[in-house]
Amino acid sequence: MWQFFHKLGSPKWFYGIATRLMPWLLVVGAALLLAGVVWGLAFAPKDYLQGNSYRIIFIHVPTAFLAQSVYIMMAVAAVVTLVWRMKLADVFVKAVAPVGLVLTFLALFTGAVWGKPTWGTWWIWDARLTSMLILLFLYGGVIALDRAINDEKSAARAVSVLVLVGVVNIPIIKYSVEWWNTLHQPATFKLTEKPSMPAEMWVPLLLSVLGLYFIFGWLACLRMQTEIIFREQRTRWVKDLVMAGRP
Amino acid sequence: MHPIRKKRLTIVLFLLAGIGVAVALTTYALRQNINLFYDPSQIAAGEAPRDVRIRAGGMVEEGSVIRDPDSLKVEFRVTDFNSSVPVEYTGILPDLFAEGQGVVAMGKLDGQGRFVADQVLAKHDENYMPPEVADALEKASKAQPKAGETAQSPSY
User: Fold this and answer.
1) Which of A3, A6, A48, A202 is best to mutate for the B interface (most B CBs within 10 A)?
2) B124 among annotated binding-site residues
């Protein structure tokens, strides 16, 4: 069993798998995301209270959802890096941190655009918005720390510890709307209950969330491949690969 | 598992538990500062400081909104269905402001327990529905309870 685990950690093996997986991730992701967003923005019924302005939910929720998911994935990879010293886990953290940063920024931005017409303000220092801003800074910190340390191995360990320290923020973001008084409304999707919107609203929302997951998978593979080629540039298989790509 | 890895995993778990406990204690100690607003019960119980800028939040009580015909002055009561606080505000209200809707007002409590607001924000909940469904639900709640059950059943 452990041998399979180590095979999974081999950059060369992953490179091959990723190449085969990526077209599927892109096609399925683009189809789901496009279907969800078009359905949500153009065909879903409008809300009785907010009218059409609620439609930004079809972009806001997927980005906010992914921003947190990506951080959890990074935390799992950080544990793997610290305990098993697996190279690929570190490659993953390094490759997806900027993606998470962009997703968090988009979630904050779309939230602000949504907040202005509905709440009456772009920004308020409530627990949900503030903890999400902290997530943005955590992503920024992870990227900066990684760039600041030249040695690959010490960078990997330092970044892993930072990612793990930051993971406490995730439950705070999730439950902020329940633990404290906030201006932000509670979650529409809950694991244990039916979503608090009709099917013609939550189905497109679910499609866009799933679609964004696939797109993220594709992006992660693409960025990991680039990072692997850079790190393994002196190995035989990378040289062969690069030479084979030439006309 | 290899003993060294086991040791590392233990350290990681201790690290996580330690940070978790530290953050939980900190946020628990600061809970009053993290809460965005005081609800009417807290204000009625005297938990909110006077003459300091605070936020008050709750529902706009049905039938309590009085608009001054000559200015932008509005008076209404904010309730949490236990206690309510009178609020006075001069300015433009957000579009979602309505009786029965949530609001968060920023301002000061004066000597008579009135809340003088300089900013009013609307708060909405996590329930979204098409206008037709909202209408149907409202009709159903006004009709007799038996008719209400049938009106609520369509498609979802």
Assistant:
1) A48
2) yes
B87 bridge partner residues: B76, B115
**Residue contact B129–A186, C-beta within 8 A:** no
Contacts of A118 in chain B (CB under 8 A): 94-96, 122, 124
What ipTM was reported for this prediction? 0.79
Every domain of chain B and the residues it spans: 1-31, 34-122
| DSSP single-letter state for residue A134 | H
B156 is annotated as contributing to ligand binding: no
Contact B8 A83 (CB under 8 A): yes
Residues B57, A119: Cα–Cα separation, whole Å: 13
Residue B155 pLDDT: 34
Q: Which residues from A are below 8 Å from B105, CB to CB?
A: none
A168 and B133: CB-CB below 8 Å?
no
Which CATH code is given to the segment(s) B34-122? Answer: 2.40.50.140
With cut-offs at 50, 70 and 90, classify the pLDDT of residue B144.
low
Please indicate if any CB of chain A lies within 8 Å of the CB of B72: no
Domains annotated on chain A, with CATH:
17-244 (1.20.120)
CA–CA dist B70, B68 (Å, integer): 6
Model confidence, pTM: 0.88
pLDDT (tens digit per residue) in B29-74? 888 788 888 988 888 888 888 888 889 999 999 888 999 888 889 9
Predicted pLDDT at B153: 36
Return the percent helix, strand and coil in chain A, to nearest 5.
Answer: 80, 0, 20
